[in-house]
Design goal:
alpha+beta; Alpha-Beta Plaits; 2 domains; 5 helices; about 20% helix
Amino acid sequence: MKRRFKCVCAYDGTDFKGWQSQAGGGTVQDFIESRLEQIFKEKIRIHASGRTDSGVHASAQVFHFDADWPHGCDRLLAALRCGFPDSIQIQKVSFAKNSFHARYSVKRKRYIYRLYEGFAPPKTTRYRWSLGNRRLDISVMNKAAQALLGEHDFTSFSANRGCEKEDTVKNLMELKVSRRGKEIKISTTGSGYLYKMVRMIVGALVDVGLGKLTKKDLERILEAKKRGQKIQSAPARGLTLEKVWY
């Protein structure tokens, strides 16, 4: 009898073409489904909490799938931990109700974006946006971030993914900028995110920190509800999907 399994995984997205399966392979989903096919001797389709772009990382991406497995979750976890590259790690496997859906059951998500004032050391540069000689005003960034909190239409802070229709109204519950030495962290928690939304919010906040934009500018851009606004998209390498709540 088939059961539904809920899995949590982490990955370094540097060398992957994003999460979602592609015809040419090379995505996180492709690697996981390939391993599942080896285990179950049949093709298994997995469904994730959401897509991450090429180069974006995850500390706790959630996905589910249905399969007939006569053993416990510990045995399946052990099987899943074999045959993956070092850049993917399955952290947890548990049974889920048939009504559970990794994407549609999500209540909120947290992303963290990491920046470095200066040039990040080689061991961390693939997880940071190095700002070189630029310096950010964290206080001004936090004040401007208040304009984006709450429920809004975030069309202006998103890019076109194609013909896919999606609800552009999202609720941002947290948007906070913090500093520890040369390390800067932007943490955001929301009901959901549009394509490139976090990276565009980060890009806008960085311009605020550099004095190129103001809080009023962010309010104006948000109210426009129109793609194509002059907002830079922060590099993918600094972004990590940190946590998903159900």
